[in-house]
Amino acid sequence: MKKETTYQRRGCSIFCKILRSLLVVLLAEMLLLIFAISTSRVTSQLNENAEDILDKQVENRANYLRQNLIQAQDLNAISGTIDGVTRELVDQGIVDLNTLDTSSEEALPLLQAIVPELVSTLRTKPVNGIFVILSTHDLNHRADDSYLPGLYIRDLDPSALSTDRNADLLAERGPATAFAPLGISTDKGWSPAMPYQPGGKTSFYKESFQIAYASKSKLSAEDYGRWTPATFRLKGDDRDALAYVQPLILDDGTVYGVVGVELLTSYLTTQLPSNELQNTDHGTYLLATTDADLKRDDVINVRTAFLTGEDADKKMPQTLTLYRDGMDWKFWLDGEEQYATLQQLELYSRNAPFSGEAWLLIGTVAQNDLYLFSHSVRNLLVMAALLTAVVGLGCSVAVARQLAKPVAQLSNELARAQNDHVSVPEFSRTGIRELDQFASAIVQLSRENEEVTALERRRIEHERDYDILTGLYNRQAFQRVCESLFAKPETLGHAALLMTDLDNLKTINDTYGHDWGDQYLRQTGRCLAASTPPGTLAARLSGDEFMLLLYGYDSREAVREELEKLRAALQDSASILPSGSELHISISGGVAWYPEDSTDFNTLKKYADFAMYQVKHSRKGEMKEFDIGMYNQEAYALQTRSEFEQMLRDQAVSYHFQPIFSARNGRAIAYEALMRPEMPTLRSPLTVMKLARELNRLYDIEHITLFKASSAFEKLKERGLVREDSLLFINSIASVSLNDTDWRDYRGRFPELARKLVVEITEEEELDPAQLERKRTVAGASGVFALDDYGSGYSNGSSLLTIAPRYVKVDISIIRSIDTNTDKQQFLTSLVDYARPRNILVLAEGVETTAELRKVLELGVDLLQGYCLARPAAVPPPLSKEAADIIHRMKRC
Amino acid sequence: MESAGDCENIRMKRLFKRITALASAAALTLSLAACGGSAVSGPKNPAPTNAKPVSITVWTYYNGDQLETFSELVDEFNATVGKEQNITVEASSQGSVNDLETNVLAAAEGKVGAAEMPNIFSAYADTCYAVDQMGLVADLSGYLTDEEKAAFPESYLTEGDFDDSGTIKIFPVAKSTELLFLNDTDWQAFAAATGATYEDLSTVEGLVATAGKYYDWTDARTAAPDDGKALFGRDAMANYMLIGAKELGSTLFTVENGKMTVNLTEDVARKRWENYYVPFVKGWFAGEGRFRSDDIKTGNVLAYVGSNSSATFFPKQVQVSDTESHEISLKVLPNPSFTGSKEVAVQQGAGMVVTKSTPEEEAACVTFLKWFTQPENNIQFAVGSGYLPVTHAADDVTAIENSGLDLTDSMKDVLANAIDAVENHELYTPKPFASGTDARKVLEYSMSDLASADRAAVEEQIAAGVSAAEAEALYLTDEYFENWYQSLCTKLSAYEG
């Protein structure tokens, strides 16, 4: 289903379309062909045709044969002659009918007399031989192996011309003396007389003679005539023959012998050319007799007298059984059905004794051979149909391809043009008029379309690239052009990027209205364009910002000259304001150099911008070159300030805790929270404080410190990492105090811790007594202060008095090297002396060496803090072992 | 005829309808297939070498077994090589050599009622020469390779080279020579009684003497006087004359540049006369039947000189009357020659002459003749007809015996003797010349017809009671001979030049 929809969506190719149509036509043709073949019944027609031809052939041959046989059997003339001669000789007493058949000698006069007649009759008939056999007695009473006098003359080749000396004749039977005068030589099987062998084949003459003899010659002699129904062979001879035998009957009805003619089978074979039955030698001619009624009987038996053709060599049975099949006759031979055509020869008169014995000429061909042609035609038709299909298919494909090719070619060329974004595609000629017109129309349309598009594009491009007001490039176009220029540094040479800002635009707008402002901008644009050398890129970026790129110079100085000219031109340009005063164009500009400052366009832009702002922040109307040192400074400040802001925003600050130990027993009684900013650049708490002070964000710091440190400390407590009763020292900014809401909030969150909180007051800031008071009295706070950095400058005795702290943290500058500096020792001693009576605890801060530790212990401080004891950490470490030892040792002593 | 015509019409209409249907189907098929390649043909038709069927006619003078053997071979050719190459040979016999020649010349001259010229006819050199003079004989030398020519004895091929230019105008197919055929069964009885031997028959003179002896012996067996029987007959009198002359050292017909000169001395003629006419008139020799083999059959003679090809006609029995017959056996002896003369054997047997026609037909003729003279076929024909094979390969008793053909002892005897004669005798073939055939006929019948007629007259007189010696005397004079000799010379001289 999915495939189908894809197919439908994509449509069908023209090749498919044409091929499908052609195949439909081909299919129709095939159906038509099959229909034509099947309705024409070609093969059955051909079969009938073959049968018809065979029938006709046999019919013609039968007619011919019948004529020959009739001519052969017409012996009336010769028999009349013989009768005459016999009657004469009998009458003359030369021969005696009673003894005529006893020996050749008795019959010799008769035989000698009729030899020439026989020879001449033989010459006139299409036969091989002629014979006379004399017999005046009932043959049934004649002794076997006796001899009947007679003559038997043979011509082996009756079709050849006769010869004058009868050299072509052979004597088969008869006295040699009878033949000698005619020059007829004897055949090898010659004998003077005809041996009588009843029942034998050699007595072929007996039937005719006997029936005439028995019937006392009621009928005429020719009615007793009969063809021997089977071939016979003369004794001593090896040639088969058929003979027609007719009795010799005198006028008085005396039967005195037979006269007859013979046909050798070899001659009959030439008379019945079986190859005429079928193109190939597959037919057989049968000369046969039958007693059956051809008109009525459906199954008949025939006795073969002679056959020639294909089956002559086969074993054709003497008697064949034929059955009627419609109009035709068939029979089986060697398991093959044979087609037979029967033609009755009608050789005997209807009333003749042998008329029931019908002679037939049968032409037979095996059915398979007979229908050979139709079979081959059928095969041919099938082959032709298949060939038609194959060739048609091939042609269809070829034609479809041929027709589809130019269209597909156009389509491909169009697709390629689309792929390559060629606006006017090019088409090769297809040679097909319509297609070529179509293609040229597309080209024409594309060309027109291209022209329109080009105009439109130019308009759009212009609108896109140029500032409408000033006619200069706009920001995007400038950016694009510059980028492409910067991609080819060789064209840039020395270049200056000038970023400018029109100084008085806002004032003009506010004073004279925006039309004048626009006027002012236009004038500026014109001036910029006019006062710079050709090739300079100028753009109005936005509002009152312009930018120029002067490039392709050999040196920076050359550019500077141009810049100077520009500045002068700008100053000179003036327009009259509605107020009547002259307005000069005042522009603040920053210049960044290529390639000195940077080779990167965006960087240069940034630098130029920076330089311009430097001007804007100082003296307007000037042009200043970029200074990398200033830029970096500014950049760093900007960076830390921005980080500071971010730090506040994100509260990106953590707190480490440094333990404060009791000098008496070394126990950690308190922890000081120390700020650790977590920013890339901004790491120092001092910087943070400085920025906070500068940016007036001290309150924020105060707030963050209080809450964040408390929260972290609370967590340490929860985790048992600091003692529950530990105090938390938090550095507070003296001049700032959190508001009530914050404090309320703090109390709510850290109720316990609020009582343990010790606020360290640093003396760096001017002390604000009000704030201080507030810190001390604000509800919820412990109100305990620690004076930080005592002895460092800001924290002095005055502070001690003012603040009245519970703890005094002696500044590291006092503690450092206190073990060796007696002044510091004295200072500390004084402080301890002062503090102790007033219940102020002295904390030595920044104790970094064991010597310092011993000294401060010795001098009697109460609390200890410093690296020597424990470093600050997110999780505060315990008292170092070394310090612990010192504390224990000192206190024991 | 009327009904046959109607039938024909109906048949034609039916046929027409079918052909129309078939044609339309075929046209449709072909137009659709757009292919007119293979024509419709029966699949069993072998591809013939010749596109066009060639039918050639052959005229022979064969008869009896010779004709049958020849026909068998023709049939075999038609069924095999002929079928393959689309050549059909139609053979017909014209009866005798003379009939054949008459018919061929009639055809060649285009006489009214004459048949068309055959493609091949069997002929002796004379006939061939006559036809060749009309420009109708094809030269076959171009159709034979040297190798094929070498298969034949040279003299066989040169027989038809009338102008010694290397042409082959007679294709040898069968050869024969003359032998003496003897009814050995009856001879043995005579020999036993008289002491006659085969050796007596080795010379002409011996033969005549033995014939006289036989006449006397048979005469003595009956009470009636002068009813002795003939011992001997001759088939070919022309050969007797020609060979006889050759044996005696002269050539009867001398031919030079196609011109013949008669060279018949009285001596030679006299010797012929003495040894044929004289014994014939005396009843020692005979010639009643068509051939002397007929006379053997009827017991008229015991021996004859004839072509070895007559062997097939030599009977197996003698039939004196309807009922009297006895089996005989054949003894073949060399043709007797005159005492002291050289032994010459006639080389005869008509060859095959191919008439001029289209190259296709001529080629087809040669194809047939080559096939016919292939050893196995040539031997088959020789054995069947009593002729001698014509190629070296076939002209050999062993080859013939090995051919696998059914060979009777007598036929073996005949062929052996014939081959011996051909190999050991000087072979003589008369040179052909214009009207040579007619001249030959004069030789053939001049003496024999006279002898037959005179003998008949003698017998009549004997029957009338005149003694044999008396009756014969009239014919045995020098004058009578002289008359005959002169008339013969006159007749022959007509053919000179």
Would you write up a description of this structure?
- The complex is a heterodimer of chains A (893) and B (497).
- Chain A is of the alpha+beta class and 893 residues long.
- In chain A, strands 1, 2, 3, 4, 5, 6, 7, 8 and 9 form a nine-stranded mixed sheet that branches.
- In chain A, α3 (42-73) packs antiparallel against α10 (372-419), α4 (76-92) runs antiparallel to α5 and α27 (850-859) packs parallel to α28 (881-892).
- The longest helix of chain A is centred in the middle third of the chain and has 48 residues, at 372-419.
- Chain A is rod-shaped and about 220 Å long.
- Chain A starts with a helix and ends with a helix.
- With 497 residues, chain B is α/β, with parallel strands linked by helices.
- Helix content of chain B is 49%, strand content 12%.
- Chain B has a four-stranded mixed sheet.
- In chain B, a hairpin with a 2-residue loop joins β6 and β7.
- In chain B, α2 (64-79) packs antiparallel against α14, α11 runs parallel beside α17 and α17 (436-463) runs antiparallel to α19.
- The radius of gyration of chain B is 28 Å and the shape is globular.
- The N and C termini of chain B lie far apart (61 Å).
- Classes of the chains: A alpha+beta (893), B alpha/beta (497).
- At the A-B interface, α2, α3, α6, β4 and α10 of A face α1, α2, α4 and α12 of B.
